[in-house]
Amino acid sequence: MATLKDVLLLTEKVERTGEVLSEVAAELREHDRRLIRLETMVELAQNKPRLT
Fold first, then answer.
1. Hey, CA dihedral for 13, 19, 21, 23, is it positive or negative?
2. Distances (CA, A) of 26 to 8, 11, 21
3. What is the pLDDT of residues 1-52, one digit of tens each?
C-alpha cells in the first residue's frame, strides 16, 4: 500500500513539474522574441547613416 501511495505522489510531482516546465518554456519564448527585437533595433541603429 505504501508503494502505491509513493507512486501516486511521484506521479503528481511529475505532473506539476511538467506544468512548471511548460510555463518556463513559454517565458523563454517571450524572452527570445524580445531579444530578437532588441537585436534588430541595434542592427538598424548601427546601419543608419548619421546626420551630423
1. negative
2. 27, 23, 9
3. 999 999 999 999 999 999 999 999 999 999 999 999 999 999 999 988 777 6
